[in-house]
Amino acid sequence: MIARSSSRRQWLQASACAWFAGAIQRTAAQPRPLREMQIHKVPELGLAIWVENQPPWEAELSQTSGHPSFIVQSPDHHHPPVVMTYASWPQERVSDAQLPPVASSAIQRASQNFGLNLAQARTVSRSAAQYGVLSGFEGQFVGRVQGIAMDVRVFVGQTSGRFPVALSIYTLEGKMGHLGEVLRRSWGQLAYLAG
Q: Do 101 and 19 share a structural domain?
C-alpha cells in the first residue's frame, strides 16, 4: 500500500512539474501585448505626455492658475477615479543640489492646496523617486478634493541639466495602490520634447 501511494505521489509531482514547465514556456513565448496609449506633445510644457487610451482618458491644457498645466482624468465609469496633472518650467534651470529644497517646497505647497494646514504640510515626508527620464522627490498624503478624502502623490524632478517638472496624481483614499500600472505607463514614459 505504501509503495503504491508513493508511486502515485511521484506520478502526480512529475505531472504537475511538466504542466508548470509547459505553462511557463507558453507564457514566455507569448509576450504581454502593449496597451494603446495617447501621446500628447505639449509645447507649452516642453513635454510628451502618455495617456491611457483603453478606454480613452480625457486630457486638456489648462491656464486657470496663470501657468500652463496639463490635466488628465479617467473616464466616468473607471474605478478608482483618477486625476493627474503635469506642470513644467521650460525657462528655468535647477541644479541637482538645489532640487531637494525646491521639491520639498513644491510638495509642501501642493499639500496645502489639497487642504492640509501648514503644520500638517510640514510633516509630509519626501522620498527619492524616479519616473522614466526624471529623477527627483515625491511626497504622499491624504488630502481633500471637494470635501472627499483622497490619496495624493506629488513628484518634482528633472533630467540633470533640463528644466523641472511637477506631477501629481490623486484618487480615492486607500486606492493609490491600484495605480501602479497607470503610473508606469504614463509617468514612466514622460519625455522632454526635442529643442
A: no
Q: What is the pLDDT of residues 50-68, one digit of tens each?
A: 999 989 999 999 998 789 9
Q: Measured on CA atoms in the order 45, 107, 151, 189, is the torsion positive or negative? A: positive
CA distance 110 to 101: 14
Task: State the residue range of the domain holding 5.
Answer: 1-32
Query: Is the domain of 26 the same as that of 61?
Result: no
* pTM of the shown model: 0.81
Q: Does 139 lie in the same domain as 160?
A: yes
76 and 138: one domain?
A: yes
Are residues 72 and 18 part of one domain? Answer: no
Contacts of 189 (CB under 8 A, 6+ apart): 37, 50, 132
What are the tens digits of pLDDT across the range 98-121? 999 999 999 999 999 999 999 999
